[in-house]
Amino acid sequence: MLRIQTKSPPLFEQGLPHNPRPANRYAGDYLILDRASEPFPPRDHWVDRARPTEPPLSYNDPGVNIDYFQRGLWRIDLGLAWHYALGRAFRISMCERTRGDAAGPVGGFAYGETSLAAMRRILTLAEACATDTFLDLGSGTGRFLLIAARLYDLEGTGVELLPTFVRNAQRIATRHAPRCQFVQADLFSVDWSGASLLYSNTTAFTDEGMARFSEKCGEIRPGARLVTVTRQPEHPDLIQVAYEMLEFSWGLSSVFVYRRR
Ligand SMILES: C[S@@+](CC[C@H](N)C(=O)[O-])C[C@H]1O[C@@H](n2cnc3c(N)ncnc32)[C@H](O)[C@@H]1O
């Protein structure tokens, strides 16, 4: 049994209907991972139940290591800090989505961020490589795509509806990740077929949004990988290859990795 101090149990604790409830439980501020009852399934096997992270990634492990400096990830964070210091990204998101019709029919606008440690883990689970074409669906500030581009030299496109995020991310990309571009568009209106690696933080999507998302998954090309957070798309050609609980700005969430048949 392993005890991990954790910051935010609520989402995990709720055992959301779309989120298979793991055997892990909270005791006060501690997440108890009962490892004996959760064997690690081998890769490439369908995983339909919870699997504790190994080791759990948390804010105590920001993912800052030698790569952070050698690969110039700090340049991305410096650029982002210039635009979004002191929680500005959350305020910008709130202003811009209440200004437009951003409540949208499918939800998904609630702002939250993927931690650096989770990004690294997701890229490892999805077997990112330099030949990948990354499509970040709902790219927010663009940090995930920018970091992925620096780490793996991959090319990619970030799709985001809020104009300030797109403008600032494009500025940073021009200087520090020239193989990336950011477009202001609805993720449901862009073509997904050109990507070999897709990421979408689907946590706040409504059921209707997930239904549309699942339908769009038909566009994903064979062999491409798709990563979603909290919610699972349903498409007969999507094979789930990994599942882990990782840390996001709101706490722990499930991450699902699929490969298109
Ligand atoms: C939870 S945030 C995730 C940000 C970033 N991808 C990350 O994981 O750190 C979701 C983002 O998706 C954007 N979004 C939501 N629905 C969208 C849509 N239909 N088209 C494009 N972007 C969308 C939101 O504006 C928000 O910035």
Defining key terms:
seven-stranded mixed beta sheet, three-stranded antiparallel beta sheet, alpha/beta, single chain, 261 residues, binds S-adenosylmethionine, 10 strands, Rossmann fold
What order do the SSEs take from the amino end to the carboxyl end, as H and E? EHEEHHHHEHEHEEHEEE
Helix/strand-derived class?
A: alpha/beta
Termini separation: 37 Å
Strand order of the largest sheet: 6-5-4-7-8-10-9
Sheet with most strands: 7 strands, mixed
**Tally of DSSP helical segments:** 8
| Binned strand content | 15-25%
CATH level 3 topology of the domain at 86-260 = Rossmann fold
Secondary-structure arrangement, i.e. CATH architecture of the domain at 86-260 = 3-Layer(aba) Sandwich
Please give the share of residues in helix. Answer: 25-40%
- Relevant CATH superfamily of the domain at 86-260: Vaccinia Virus protein VP39
The coarse silhouette is globular
Q: Indicate the CATH class of the domain at 86-260.
A: Alpha Beta
Mean pLDDT: 79
Bound molecules: S-adenosylmethionine
Q: Extract low-pLDDT stretches.
A: 4-62
- How many strand elements? 10
Based on CA atoms alone, the radius of gyration comes out at 18 Å
